[in-house]
Design a protein that fits this description.
InterPro entries: CBFA_NFYB_domain (IPR003958), Histone-fold (IPR009072), Transcr_DNA_Rep_Reg (IPR050568). Pfam families: CBFD_NFYB_HMF. Its main location: nucleus. This is NCT transcriptional regulatory complex subunit A. With about 160 residues, this protein is mainly α. The longest helix has 26 residues. Helix 2 packs across helix 3 and helix 3 crosses helix 4. The protein starts with 16 loop residues before the first helix and ends in a 21-residue tail after the last helix. The chain is built from 6 helices and no strands. The protein has a domain of about 100 residues: Histone, subunit A, CATH 1.10.20.10.
Length: about 160
C-alpha cells in the first residue's frame, strides 16, 4: 500500500467535489439529432495551420473542432427552427437566425455578423402566404384570365 492512503470507491450517485463545483451545461443535442454530415478534418487542420502562430497540431485536435462545429450548428439551427415554428413558417430564414443570436447570451459573439441582416426581411415566417393570398384576391378583381403557374423545382418521379 502507498503512504497516501487507500482510495475508497465512490457510489454511482456520489460526485467528487471538483465535479460538484463544475457548472451545469445544457445538452447541445437534446433531441438526439442524427448527424449525417461531418466537417472535413483535413480542411480544418489546414485552416488551423494557416495561422503563423500555430505550430504543430495534434491529430485529435481537428476531430474535436469538427465535433464542436457539429454541436454548434445543431444548437443554432434548432433554435432558429423553433423560432420559425413559433411564427408559423416552414423555412428557417436569416431573420430567425438573427432573433436567436440577439435574444440569447449563448451566441453573443455573432451579434456583429447578424446586425448586417436588414430589418426589411422582417416578414420571415408564416405571414408571407397570407400576404400573397390577399394580393391575389385583389388582383382577381380585374377579370383577366390567369395563366397557370409553372411549378418550382424538379419533377417528381412517377411510380408507374
Amino acid at each position: 500500500m502507498s503512504s497516501r492512503g487507500a482510495r475508497q470507491p465512490r457510489a454511482l450517485g456520489q460526485a467528487s467535489s471538483s465535479m460538484a463545483d463544475a457548472p451545469a451545461y445544457k445538452n447541445p443535442n437534446p433531441s438526439n439529432i442524427e448527424i449525417k454530415t461531418k466537417f472535413p478534418v483535413a480542411r480544418i487542420k489546414r485552416i488551423m495551420q494557416a495561422d503563423e502562430e500555430v505550430g504543430k497540431v495534434a491529430q485529435v485536435t481537428p476531430v474535436a473542432v469538427s465535433k464542436a462545429l457539429e454541436l454548434f450548428m445543431i444548437s443554432l439551427v434548432s433554435s432558429a427552427a423553433e423560432k420559425a415554428k413559433e411564427k408559423g413558417g416552414k423555412r428557417v430564414t436569416a431573420q430567425h437566425l438573427k432573433q436567436v443570436v440577439t435574444e440569447g447570451d449563448q451566441f453573443d459573439f455573432l451579434v456583429d455578423i447578424v446586425s448586417k441582416i436588414s430589418e426589411a426581411q422582417e416578414g420571415a415566417g408564416g405571414d408571407t402566404r397570407k400576404r400573397k393570398e390577399k394580393s391575389v384576391a385583389t388582383d382577381s378583381d380585374h377579370d383577366e384570365p390567369k395563366k397557370p403557374k409553372k411549378g418550382k423545382g424538379r419533377r417528381k418521379k412517377n411510380d408507374d
